[in-house]
Automatic annotation (TrEMBL), chain A:
It holds the Pfam family CcmD. Required for the export of heme to the periplasm for the biogenesis of c-type cytochromes. It is a single-pass membrane protein. The chain crosses the membrane at residues 20-37. Its main location: membrane. It is found in: Cell inner membrane. InterPro entries: Haem_export_protD_CcmD, Heme_exporter_D. It comes from Zhongshania aquimaris. Keywords: Cell inner membrane, Cell membrane, Cytochrome c-type biogenesis, Membrane, Transmembrane, Transmembrane helix, Transport. This is Heme exporter protein D. Belongs to the CcmD/CycX/HelD family.
From TrEMBL, chains B, F:
Residues 6-211 form the ABC transporter domain. PANTHER family: ABC TRANSPORTER I FAMILY MEMBER 1. PROSITE patterns: ABC_TRANSPORTER_1 (PS00211), ABC_TRANSPORTER_2 (PS50893). It holds the Pfam family ABC_tran. This is Cytochrome c biogenesis heme-transporting ATPase CcmA. Keywords: ATP-binding, Membrane, Nucleotide-binding, Translocase, Transport.
From TrEMBL, chains C, E:
It is a multi-pass membrane protein. NCBIfam families: ccmB (TIGR01190). The chain crosses the membrane at residues 28-46, 53-72, 105-126, 138-161, 167-191, 203-226. Keywords: Cell inner membrane, Cell membrane, Cytochrome c-type biogenesis, Membrane, Transmembrane, Transmembrane helix, Transport. It comes from the Bacteria. This is Heme exporter protein B. Belongs to the CcmB/CycW/HelB family. It is found in: Cell inner membrane. Signal peptide: none annotated.
Automatic annotation (TrEMBL), chain D:
It is found in: Cell inner membrane; Membrane. Required for the export of heme to the periplasm for the biogenesis of c-type cytochromes. Its main location: membrane. Keywords: Cell inner membrane, Cell membrane, Cytochrome c-type biogenesis, Membrane, Transmembrane, Transmembrane helix, Transport. It comes from Zhongshania aquimaris. Residues 14-183 form the Cytochrome c assembly protein domain. InterPro entries: Cyt_c_assembly, Cyt_c_biogenesis_CcmC, Cyt_c_biogenesis_CcsA/CcmC. It is a multi-pass membrane protein. The chain crosses the membrane at residues 21-44, 56-83, 95-115, 127-146, 158-181, 201-223. Belongs to the CcmC/CycZ/HelC family. This is Heme exporter protein C.
Length: 61, 211, 228, 247, 228, 211
């Protein structure tokens, strides 16, 4: 490791807040994209299941 | 009868120096229906807008319960329901939202049940929550007509209420008109249809020479 | 007319206008997008030097905000006129005044307010010195509300016209000028370290005046516009 | 040729094929991104001019590069959709827009944060920065246009037209902004030239760059597959897939 | 289709659009009024010092002209869509291309051209040095025509939308930027005594490109907008 | 007959997952009139827009003279005259100017005499030079209908042509339809009126369950 200690790694001689903020926001945005994908996928699946259930109900009547 | 409903005396209007009607006088009491007839461009809409108080391009007198419209405006508007040529609804809102707003304007405190019932009566069950722009021409007109069922009024002024309405719908509306008139309301309407209601009604024909 | 009825009327109109605007989307997002993009155009037109931009920032920001507000104004009564719901507003025994007030308020809530809230970010883009940020936002919040009232008068006067829509900007822009002057000078004063409260107070006075008198003018203008 | 094209155009085939690709993309991209970031954050020596703030580069540059590539991909998909009426291309196009916009936003944000310690200001009207801002506007335009349409097919076609017009304009915009900037050129500000970047600083960048490309590919597949499910919800194969064959 | 028939079609569309615009009045006068008034607002917003204004004049004039052109664009196909005459344009065996070309040309003739012709006067107002006047006019004549073509694409894409009216600005403004850059820098170059023909030539190239390709995009977009 | 006029095969359309019509097939030859009937919101306008080539939201086949619409578009449009729900006229222009433009669009080289004659036939004598916005609702509709007399076509597709037209006008229009059909033209129209023309005509009723 280039830094001598973990606290140095965090402070990065004063520029730490900028660097860590950037990485933090980036991780957040990228993770959000993934989470949104999972949510939408779940919603789509649920919608299709409901559709099929409705169809089955009408055909069995 | 001094305290009659709507009374029109010697009304006169012109447009671009063409006289639409002159010396027009009639009276509309509770329990009466009056049809304004006449070919296109004869001035039916112009007359109705004057009577609704939207237009002041006339000379002559218009009285409500014996008092002139200007003086009696507040009472008159409380009793009047006017449905014009225009859409009368916001296209991005749903039928239900449109009705809610219309009722609030008139201070009519209707629960959603009443409104849904009105929409049901005009044949829009299932379309209550869809934005109006995705409705067909006739369906949009029906949303506007649903106001007849949720806003209390003494006098209906209707400008071609049957436009874009299918035959079944026309019969239904004629029935509503009958019921309203039997219940003591007054109706003033224009239409190019042959009106068939159970009551007697009078017809005033505006100038036939224009078209 | 009883108090709660009036309140109900105001709330109904507010609710409907805000819902319609949000659903249409364009009404609240357009002024914002316009504000951001035009602020970004200026550096491209006049050059990117930061100190020069900083010098011009208060003026540019205020002029562009004013334009965004002007553009949004045209639609205030236009839609209601076209779909004949304006007739319904006139044909009720309840007073027109609260309806007009509610409509103007709704309009400001979806145009002027978001614009004011976004302004600090645009200040950054134009290198507005940090001391100017708060006065910019405050002056915009107060100022755009005045602009909404003035604009509503113009919109009401011109809504029924088929020919001669030129009028709106012609009628409204001259009336906007005092607001622009006091608004931008508040920001400039703050940057130069001077007191900016006097200018804000002036904007407050404008606001109270507009609140009291503009609705009357708007009501009259609407009646004239419908009756043609 | 036409048969492979047909196969590629079939949402069902694409769904199954992409399903096999997904885990690989996910693992590889996360490895590269996380590994490159750790490497760049903790192990690379500091830049002699900028100190430690240059470490933002390992996220900033990949985001910017992929964002631009994404727009071109989107426009290409749009063209394919318009010319060959391929439905899958429309779905790809719709999937790219939000991803590309997010990456553009990231590059703008990280750039601005990088600017504060190095230039002392959040924002300058540098040619490249300005271009990225315009790219962001272009993305927003496509997204807003898509949302404004009620009808999915019309939305796809309209967005395809806009994306193509935008893509034709991007080189023009970049080039004119570059030219505009060369007119003014405030000397106080300049990018760290490529030559000054030490090779040891470059290697983690390569890692995060590749990682970001793969990550983009992964997201693209995820979003396109959802799009396929939503559009083909009435078909037999989708219903069987979601509810099991044994209904 | 024979040549004279195409020509007749173009003339008929041109004639109708120009007459309608002139009769409505707002279409040609609004951008002009906007241009004049906003240029007049700037000295109020940023201060009246002549040398400072002179320095900024090319940028301001060009940005405002661009905005005026943008605002006018929305109405290009909106009216035709609303009154269903756009359907008639699509439902003829004659090609859509010349119709679209004629419409865009008519639009430029009633908005861009008057604006360009008026610009020297506004140059005076903003203390634009005399050497800048001719380049300003020339660059505006060329530039606004390109803006009209680009704007027409956006207008055609958004004309069928109920939500998202001035979504137009979001779509179109980024595409305007090269025109703004070359237009304003032509004027600046002329003021500084440098050659401004290169920039004008560039605008000419943009114009030819737009003339060749924009109508294609517009035709496609119109068909999409009507078919919803 | 292979080279028939308009032929529709197994047409299907839905809106928001609601099927408007499916498996719709019919044929319309020269000298025939076909009315599309159905209550409000049943999909009449949607059908007409598809047949006019304005909408591509359908599956199935539409053929003109044996060839599909897409391939035969130029010929088809040369023969088609479509009058929709919309106004179809510019409000600031006069009826005459509107007609001139409509004719130029279709490459119909009519002198003003022909156009004035058409306006005369639809009862707008004296209104030729007035801007259309100052005409009444029915008069505006008549301007749009005047196109029937100055644009040569084989096939008329009319969406509720009688809207806002007075009773005399309706009779006249019915007569025009008769004459056109006798002369070998085909007409496809929707209306809520009871159509009375001298020829036999068929009626296709779209779903009655929607409203
Ligand atoms: C909001 C501000 C910024 C934006 C939008 C931005 C955008 C970009 C773009 C588009 C690239 C090109 C990526 C590629 O083509 O591979 C890039 C690369 C780069 N940026 Fe930024 N940037 C910003 C701020 C900064 C700052 C403040 C710095 C450092 C002081 C910086 C340093 C770099 C470096 C070192 C590269 C890669 C090396 C090179 O290609 O020259 N950027 N940036
Ligand atoms: N843009 C749209 N989005 C969603 N649904 C729509 C849209 N346009 C029409 N519809 C739906 O399609 C159905 C059919 O509409 P259409 O206009 O074809 O009816 P119509 O038979 O012409 O009725 P009318 O007699 O009232 O004119 C309506 O129920 C309407 O809800
Ligand atoms: N804004 C206006 N300016 C000038 N003239 C007008 C205006 N509005 C209406 N007119 C004229 O007034 C006459 C009457 O119009 P009105 O709308 O009252 O007729 P109508 O009887 O309702 O006809 P329709 O049956 O077609 O609805 C028309 O001939 C029209 O030319
Ligand atoms: Mg009428
Ligand atoms: Mg219909």
């Amino acid at each position: 490791m280039y830094f001598n200690s973990v606290s140095e790694l965090f402070s990065m001689s004063g520029h730490g807040s900028y660097v860590w903020f950037s990485y933090g926001v980036s991780a957040l945005v990228l993770a959000t994209l993934v989470i949104i994908a999972r949510r939408r996928r779940a919603a789509a699946e649920q919608h299709i299941r409901a559709l099929v259930r409705r169809k089955d109900a009408t055909t069995s009547n | 009868m001094l305290n009659s409903g709507l009374e029109v005396k010697q009304l006169y209007t012109d447009r671009d120096d063409r006289v639409l009607f002159s010396d027009l006088s009639f009276q509309l009491n509770a329990g009466q229906l009056l049809q304004i007839a006449g070919p296109n461009g004869s001035g039916k809409t112009s007359l109705l807008r004057i009577l609704a108080g939207l237009s002041s391009r006339y000379s002559g007198e218009v009285l409500w319960q014996g008092k002139s419209l200007q003086k009696n405006r507040h009472d008159y508007l409380q009793q009047l329901l006017y449905i014009g040529h225009g859409a009368g609804i916001k296209a991005v809102l749903s039928p239900l939202e449109n009705l809610r707003w219309s009722c609030a304007l008139r201070g009519a405190e209707n629960s959603d049940v009443v409104l849904l019932d009105a929409l049901n009566k005009v044949g829009l069950r299932g379309f209550e929550e869809q934005p109006c722009f995705s409705l067909s021409a006739g369906q949009q007109r029906r949303v506007n007509l649903a106001r007849l069922f949720c806003i209390p009024a003494q006098l209906w002024i209707l400008d071609e209420p049957f436009t874009a309405i299918d035959q079944g719908g026309v019969c239904e509306i004629e029935q509503w008109l009958s019921e309203f008139v039997s219940g003591g309301g007054s109706v003033l309407l224009t239409t190019h249809h042959k009106l068939s209601v159970s009551q007697d009604f009078s017809v005033i024909a505006l100038g036939a020479s224009n078209v | 007319m009883s108090e709660p009825k009036l309140l109900k009327l105001v709330i109904a109109v507010l609710h409907r206008d805000i819902v319609a605007s949000l659903r249409r989307g364009s009404e609240w997002s357009n002024p914002l997008v316009f504000f951001v993009m035009v602020c970004a155009l200026f550096p491209l037109g006049i050059g990117p030097q930061p100190d020069r931009l900083a010098d011009l920032a208060p003026g540019i920001l205020w002029v562009v905000a004013l334009l965004a507000s002007l553009l949004a104004t045209d639609s205030l009564f236009r839609g209601d006129f076209d779909d004949a719901t304006l007739e319904q507003m006139l044909l009720t025994h309840q007073s027109l005044y609260p309806q007009v007030l509610a409509k103007t308020l709704a309009h400001w809530l979806v145009t002027g307010l978001p614009l004011s809230l976004l302004s600090p970010m645009l200040g950054l883009l134009l290198h507005l010195p940090g001391e100017g940020t708060v006065p910019l936002m405050l002056s915009l919040v107060l100022g755009t509300s005045v602009l909404s009232f003035i604009g509503a008068i113009g919109a009401a006067l011109t809504v029924g016209l088929r020919k001669g829509g030129l009028l709106l900007s012609l009628i409204v822009l001259p009336l906007y000028i005092p607001v622009l002057i006091f608004g931008s000078s508040a920001v400039k004063a703050a940057i130069e370290g001077a007191a900016y409260l006097p200018q804000l107070a002036m904007l407050g006075v404008f606001f109270l005046g507009a609140l009291a008198f503009a609705p009357l003018a708007i009501c009259g203008a609407l009646r004239i516009s419908v009756d043609q | 040729m036409s048969s492979t094209f047909h196969k590629w155009g079939s949402p069902r085939w694409f769904y199954q094929f992409s399903g096999r690709l997904l885990p690989w993309l996910a693992i590889l991209s996360l490895l590269l991104l996380v590994g490159g970031a750790v490497w760049g954050l903790a192990f690379v020596p500091a830049d002699y001019k900028q100190g430690n703030s240059f470490r933002i580069m390992y996220i900033h540059v990949p985001a910017a590069a992929v964002a631009m590539g994404a727009y071109m991909t989107m426009a290409t998909a749009g063209a394919i959709h318009l010319i060959w009426r391929m439905k899958l291309a429309a779905m790809v196009m719709k999937a790219i827009a939000p991803i590309g916009a997010s990456l553009t936003f990231l590059s703008l944000l990280t750039g601005a944060v990088w600017g504060k310690p190095t230039w002392g200001t959040w924002w300058v009207w540098d040619a490249r920065i300005t271009s990225v801002l315009i790219l962001f506007f272009l993305y927003l335009g496509v997204i807003a246009l898509h949302q404004a349409f009620e009808n999915r097919d019309a939305a796809a076609k309209a967005c395809a037209v806009l994306a193509i017009v935008g893509a034709v304009n991007i080189p023009i915009i970049y080039w004119s902004v570059e030219w505009w900037y060369s007119l003014h050129q405030p000397a106080s500000i300049s990018f760290t030239g490529e030559s000054t970047i030490h090779p040891s600083m470059l290697r983690p960048l390569m890692a995060t760059l590749c990682g970001m490309y793969l990550f983009f590919g992964w997201l693209l597949l995820l979003y396109t597959r959802i799009e396929i499910l939503e559009r083909e919800k009435n078909t037999r194969w989708v219903q069987d897939l979601i509810c099991g064959e044994s209904r």
